[in-house]
Amino acid sequence: MPTFSIHTYGCQMNVRESEAAAKALLDAGFAQAPDEETADIVLVNTCSVRGKAEDKALGKLGLLCATKRERPGRVVGVMGCMAQRMGGELFKRLPRLDFAIGTRCAERVVPAVEAALHGDTTLALRDLHDRPDAPNGHVAGGFSAFVTILLGCNRRCTYCIVPDVRGDEWSRPARDVLAEVRALAAQGVREVTLLGQSIMNYGLRTPAFDADDPPSPGGYTRPFPRLLEAVAAIPGIERIRFTSGHPSGVTEELVRLFREEPKICHHLHLPVQSGSDAVLGRMRRGYTREAYLAAVARLRAAAPDLALTTDVIVGFPGETEADFQSTRTLMEEARFDNAFIFKYSPRPGTVSATWEDDVPDAEKARRNQVLLGDQDVRGARINQALVGTTLRVLAEGPSLRNPAKWSGRTPGNKIVVFTPPKGLRPGDFLDLVITRAAPQTLYAD
Ligand code: 5AD
Ligand code: SF4
User: How does pLDDT run across 354-402, given as a tens digit for each residue?
Assistant: First the structure.
């Protein structure tokens, strides 16, 4: 049987969809290639969020398609956000490409591969108002799994391509989510990360629960906390994470759940994007600096050990030095454990792309460096304060850099490198005293 390899760009949603595609290919009898070089079928799962992400994937696809000159039977396909955004244009740019399938289309991978093996090309794009099922299959063997609960996004921030490539928000029925998590727990999964672009909107635009579903024991009325509570009740699941958040979803019920449900990790990715109200307004983020910080304060009051991470865009149209300084001070006030900083990139078809991209690239790069520098200092300081504390670590396996050591993760999703006790298996939990800290890593010697 031909072998396959999947290369994934972009967010965890894409990682999840690549996994579902891999499972479908395995079920159809294809085998995972030991490496991309030797694979008969190569899929590239793509991201459109910034121009640079697209350029990288196009470069990669160009090289892969060039290998078809020597290996004419090789199959090269593209899936995900770029396929959805660019459609047939991809075949013009990459004449040897075999197929392009858009988002929410993992179930079309096997037919597209089979068609390609017969020499046919496929272009399959999703009608983004459809309501298909979320990706379902998992490759067995892990102790940590992603579960998609919400597709699409309706928020329409002015810079963002996601609504165009992933379509309308659609919540997967709670019953289906819970069945999937139960099946994962039965296979040995201990930690689940629930995924959705604006996950706290779960069940708000399309129903998630119906009248037959059992009532919430804790009296949660909002669908998202109610789902989290139900996931936490599944035996075998020890840790629950979810991403990404929005301050409007940090409701009283969600905060109560953070306080009362020990399986909910005290870890949240809460993209802020900017600390300036003027910029937030033009981004149409739907909150002010003050509202964002208030949401953080509510969370920290319930979970003082909360690890908070964020995304920031620098160089948004019209961002002044004063706006930028507001972002710097917000990041310090919010005490982010980690931050992903992006240079603004105009995306075709978005509202902000019609505005002048007026911050020069060199200035974007400078602001990026300044924020990264601040974050390094802050991250080191926050991690240093963890030295001497005991943290519960989910053991993952031998460390990549030094196989004599293992690595694992804390509830705050920080990596801990430690000496493994005898008989330790991946997926075991252990309590470790932190002895040393670096900006991105903790050590338990
Ligand atoms: N330019 C730069 N960064 C962007 N992001 C989303 N759209 C853009 C854009 N047009 C960033 C945001 C988002 C993260 C996934 O990517 O910070 O949270
Ligand atoms: Fe990239 Fe957004 Fe698509 Fe994820 S949803 S792959 S971040 S464009």
Answer: 999 999 999 999 999 999 999 999 999 999 999 999 999 999 999 988 8
How far does residue 194's CA lie from ligand 2's centre (Å)?
16
Say how far apart CA 343 and CA 314 lie, in whole Å. 5
The answer to whether 6 touches 21, Cβ cutoff 8 Å, is: yes
Residue 271 Cβ < 6 Å to ligand 1 = yes
Contact by Cβ (8 Å): 240, 221: no
Gap from CA of 14 to ligand 2 centroid (Å): 7
Q: Which of 85, 88, 93 has its CA nearest to residue 121?
A: 88
What is the identity of the amino acid at 82?
M
pLDDT tens column, 88-146: 999 999 999 999 999 987 789 999 999 999 999 999 998 877 776 788 889 888 899 99
Positive or negative, the Cα torsion across 144, 149, 155, 156? positive
Would you say 25 and 157 are in contact if contact means Cβ atoms under 8 Å apart? Answer: no
CA distance 283 to 280: 5
